[in-house]
Write a structure and sequence with these properties.
- By secondary structure, the chain is α+β, with helices and mostly antiparallel strands.
- An 11-stranded antiparallel sheet has the order 6-5-4-3-2-1-11-10-9-8-7, with no helix packed on it.
- The chain is globular, with a radius of gyration of 18 Å.
- The chain has one domain: Lipoprotein localisation LolA/LolB/LppX (outer membrane lipoprotein receptor (LolB), chain A), CATH 2.50.20.10.
Length: 182
């Protein structure tokens, strides 16, 4: 009888913690209009760093550090990656970033996904959607998005880690205009 009581208490506490994490992440996402952050992106052991701003829904502007003057911009429909030598444009919907940049999609998915706690510090959800597998991670204390892992259109593993997060900063809408091809 005592053993059953311990199992019940453990199950109740575990379920309650998971429900609170889920609730706090959803509330945080609902209250977020935009995010500004530094990032580190690892694609096949090639590491790039820079700064990004996400404006929900589906807009992002990133400047990469380095000599290539690389930028990544989405206006919500298209995604452009531009360097001093190259210009690539993709339909945003064909990329996993389309799902990551849609907070309503994330909220709806998080309601139903299994939660995993990683190293006691991160909350992980795995999304399988439109031939994409996306692992998203949230901080266990602030409930901010901290990283994601996807495969890009070339099937390279892409791990993006966020830091120095600022929420709901003042930004200009023209930031998300696609750069001209030159």
């Amino acid at each position: 009888m005592v053993k059953c009581l311990y199992i019940f208490i453990y199950f109740f506490l575990f379920t309650n913690v998971e429900a609170n994490n889920r609730k706090n992440i959803i509330i945080n996402l609902e209250n977020t209009q935009n995010l500004s952050f530094k990032f580190e992106q690892n694609i096949n052991e090639k590491i790039e760093r820079g700064n990004c701003i996400i404006k929900y829904p589906k807009k992002i502007y990133c400047e990469y550090d380095g000599i290539n003057n690389k930028i990544l911009v989405s206006n919500g429909k298209s995604l452009v990656i531009k360097t001093k030598d190259n210009y690539f444009i993709y339909p945003l919907e064909k990329t996993p970033l389309s799902l990551i940049l849609d907070k309503n999609f994330l909220i709806n998915k998080i309601y139903n996904l299994e939660e995993k706690i990683i190293d006691g510090s991160f909350i992980n959800y795995t999304i399988n959607e439109k031939d994409n597998k996306i692992d998203i991670f949230f901080d266990n204390k602030t409930f901010y998005l901290t990283s994601w892992q996807t495969k890009d259109i070339y099937q390279n593993i892409n791990i993006t880690t966020l830091s120095s997060m600022k929420k709901n900063v003042i930004i200009k809408d023209n930031l998300f205009r696609l750069p001209a091809y030159n």
